[in-house]
Amino acid sequence: MKAGEIVAQGRHDELLATSDLYRQLCTELRTESAPALVENAMLTRAELGD
Fold first, then answer.
1. Which of 7, 8, 12, 14 has the maximal Cβ count within 10 Å?
2. 39 has pLDDT over 80
3. pLDDT tens digit string along 1-19?
């Protein structure tokens, strides 16, 4: 998640306005299901070649 933190640094408001995945991550990070969501997001990024 380190690379995602670097990309998102200083862009929280912009990403909240433009990214469904970012909004979902922010919401889920406040819940117990955060580890599963982060794992799913990382798998999706890997599948896309990021």
1. 8
2. no
3. 555 665 656 787 888 889 8
Quote the tokens at residue 48. Answer: 């896309």
**In angstroms, how far is CA 3 from the centroid of its own chain?**
10
Kindly report the average pLDDT of the chain as a whole number.
69
Supply the pTM of this predicted model: 0.42
What residues have CB less than 8 Å from 21, skipping those under 6 apart? 41, 44
Q: Which residues contact 5 (CB under 8 A, 6 or more apart)?
A: none
Residues 43 and 30: their CA atoms lie apart, in Å, by: 20
Tokens matching residue 17: 């306005």
Q: How many domains does the chain have?
A: 1
